[in-house]
Amino acid sequence: MEHDFELLEELTEARGVPGYEDRIREIVRREFDETVDRVRTDAMGNVVGTIEGIGDGNESADGSESDDGSESDDGSESDDGSYSVAVAAHMDEIGFMVKHVTDEGFLQVDALGGFDPRVLRAQRVTVHSDDGDLTGVIGSVPPHTLTEEQREKKDEVEDVYIDVGLDGDAASEQVAVGDLVTLDQTTVEMGELVTGKALDDRVCVFQLLEAARRIEDPDVTIHFAATVQEEVGLRGAQALGVDVDPDLAIALDVTVANDVPQIGDESKQVTEVGEGTAVKLKDSSVITNPKVNRRLRDVAERREIDHQLEVLPAGGTDTAGFQNTHGAKPVGAISIPTRYLHTVTESAHVDDIDAAIDLLVAFLETETGENDYTL
């Protein structure tokens, strides 16, 4: 990779399910401290790092920042007439919350986010309790003993039991209802790919942090937002749509790359890894603004950044969270093609990650606030 693999590794291996993104938030705030003009966290846990635009009158003749009242006493952005862009990537990953501990010491859980139950068998997990982290496994009954009925039964998330290696009394003492569970996996480079858990959407949090590091003296104010609770309904972005109230919003997320042998129909691949970053045209939650995605494509073509178009038939992103939360807003999205989404082996091409960062930086560096995105 051209960029900081250790930071990407740290982001993806850290744990943070919807509503409990604390560990990721600490990393984001640490990185923002060195790259943005100010950082704030709201009541939901969204982190916003703001770089003031030099075209907005936020810098005086001697180079010092002027006191223009751009932030109110409660930390929300005030309407000072400056043009602003929000860039959002979500911090949360799919996981579980413990809902019951059986008399035998097995844990039953409620899903936080969308799991394909087929991929949960025989997975190792971490249970995050008040007394510390516990290792557990999602057990799978050996095929030797399955009845025909059990063989034909469809996997369901509610049928998941987690074994923490303790009897009922010990498990009840160490694990409580409401404790969180995340899947275990390390992040490694695999050929030209990076693979691990939670690339959705930590690889785009990485993209956001790298862009904030590279942006200097933008014409417009940029709010880099690491959002919460995307996996359970775009909730953090919806709140920020009101609080930040940007003139333009760009969401960053992974997208489906079904360029694998199991998918024979090329029309169902959506994107291909190694073919560049993706400019989103639609998903099931949003149709992006045609003028915004046209400018994204123009910037990519002028800068010779590899890119492809994304038409995603199912799945939503923070893009929709900003589109009409506080009146109509022009929105666009930059996606990173990723194989095996919502598993612990999510895989993205290093060149696509670099292209996504390059496109975001180029788009923001050339945004003057004078582009007409009205339709």
TrEMBL record:
**Which SUPFAM superfamilies does the annotation name?**
Aminopeptidase/glucanase lid domain, Zn-dependent exopeptidases
Please name the Gene3D superfamilies in this protein's record.
Answer: Peptidase M42, domain 2, Zn peptidases
Record text on cofactor binding: Binds 2 divalent metal cations per subunit.
Alphabetized Pfam families for the sequence: Peptidase_M42
Q: Which organism is it from?
A: Halalkaliarchaeum desulfuricum
Region described as Disordered: spans on this chain:
47-82
UniProt-recorded name of the protein: Peptidase M42 family protein
Alphabetically list the UniProt keywords: Aminopeptidase, Hydrolase, Metal-binding, Protease
Q: Which residues bind Zn(2+) 1?
A: H90, D200, D253
